Amino acid sequence: MQRTFPHRRPWSRPLCLALVFAALLGGLGCAEHHYYRVYDPYYHDYHRWDHQEAAYYDQWAVETHRDPHRDFKGLNDQEKKEYWTWRHSHPDHDHDKH
């Protein structure tokens, strides 16, 4: 016995697929611009924590023999101060103070 669904429209399946595809593409575009602001209490300014700032953090971690996979938020206050001091000696004028 075959069931039929009288409320189903012939265009509903392509429409659903198009909506799913659009949602996936929209999500990918948003991921590229993900960042958050971090306040530097020692220099009284803000930094955009994005892929570029993460690269500076990784560089600092390697140079100071720390684990680059450790999240910045997990550092203690003294380590954060050391990072911000190092970071201000390696400026990126197009990127900082946003």
Distance between the termini: 65 Å
Oligomer: single chain
Order of helices and strands: HEEHH
Record field, number of beta strands? 2
List the helices and strands and how they pair.
Blueprint: H1 12-32, E1 36-40, E2 45-49, H2 51-63, H3 77-88
Antiparallel strand pairs: 1-2
What would your notes on this structure say?
- The chain is mainly alpha-helical and 98 residues long.
- It has a domain at 36-88.
- The chain has three helices and two strands, in the order αββαα.
- It has helices at residues 12-32, 51-63, 77-88; strands at residues 36-40, 45-49.
- It has a two-stranded antiparallel sheet with strand order 1-2.
- Strand 1 (36-40) and strand 2 form a beta hairpin.
- The protein is elongated and about 70 Å long.
- The N and C termini lie far apart (65 Å).
- The relative contact order is 0.12.
- The model has no long low-confidence stretch (mean pLDDT 80).
Question: What's the short version?
Answer:
This protein is mainly alpha-helical.
Key structural traits:
mainly alpha; 10% strand
